[in-house]
Each structure stands twice: as structure tokens, then as C-alpha cells.
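Fig. S4 source data, part A: sequence.
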Amino acid sequence: MALEFTTLFEGQQSGLKVIFPDTGAAALARRDWGETPFRVTDLGSRATGIERKISEADEIFLLVCPSSVEVETVEKLCELAGDRPVILLIPQLEDVSIVGIGYAARQLRDRFISTLESVYYFRPLDDVVVLRSYPSPWLVFLEKEDGYELIAEQGQKPMGEALDILVNNALKGEEDDSNQPQPKKGGIFASMQSFLKALSQ
């Protein structure tokens, strides 16, 4: 997927640097992709910091699958990049078990994670899908018996308690079907197919 994503930068690939979280992933990409017009590297290590991985010739940074383990290094990369764009492909920076839920985690979210702009976001949850395709607003879909229904459009990313409130408000007016047998769900692929069908209507 990362290699396919690089084609979006046609004409700028000589200034593109694709960065993987670790040395092994970067080495595999170099082996599998062969010769490329862009450079492939990793986020560095304790011995080799991110400062030594970037140069003035770099114009765009594409960071592939960064996790919450690398969040401080990702923040440092964004600082070093200055006005140059840093694109995070499939980031997973908010793992509560690693980042935590206390004061330090809140500081990290306020200082860095909250400054990131989600350009494309798709997250299926239990009976709910949160979607965004920039510059459109955040969309919340609720799964019904006959497909997915758009229940909210938001300027900010709906999450946690705010998302629960949206779903509960949408369910308030519905009849209580608790005594009716519920249709068997078809699994994640059937659910995804149903959602994509609802989007195309």
C-alpha cells in the first residue's frame, strides 16, 4: 500500500522520503521495491536519532504505520520538517496501553496528536462507522437492518463519550425491538460491503 501511495507524488518523488518505524521494515521495503526515485529509511534508534535520517534535500516525508511506541520520534520528525509536509499513513499513535490515560498522555494529545489533520479516516466500530474524507466533515453511520444510515456530520472527530451520545440520540426514537429475534450478522466483510453500498447510494 505504501508503494502505491508514493505514486501520488509523481513529479516530486526525487524529494520524497519514505520512512518506516524500524530498520527491518525499511530493509524489506528496499528489497521488495527495488530501485525507486525516492529514498527509503527508518525512524532511527537510540544510537542514530531521527536528526541523522533527514536532510535539506527532503521535500516530503511519508511515514508508514507509526505506532504509539514511536510517537515522540514522530513528534521530533514533525518539528525538524518545519514547513515541509509530513504524511502519516495508517498511524496508530493513541494506544492507551502505551501512551497512558494520565496527565502525560493528555499533554501529548494536546501538544502534538491534536495538531494532526486526518485527511482520510475509516473506522468500523460495533454497529457504527466513523468516516472522513478531507475536506468533508466527519460522518457517523449507524448500522440498521437494511444497511447503514448517516446519523451525524461533525466538524470535529467524534470519539469516546461524544460518539456514544450521538449514537444514543439516534437510537432514542426507535421502537424497542428487544423481543424480536435479531438478524444474524454476516461478519466484518459483509458489514463492510453493506456500508460501501450505503455510501454509493
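Fig. S4 source data, part B ends here. Residues 55 and 81 are 9 Å apart (CA to CA).
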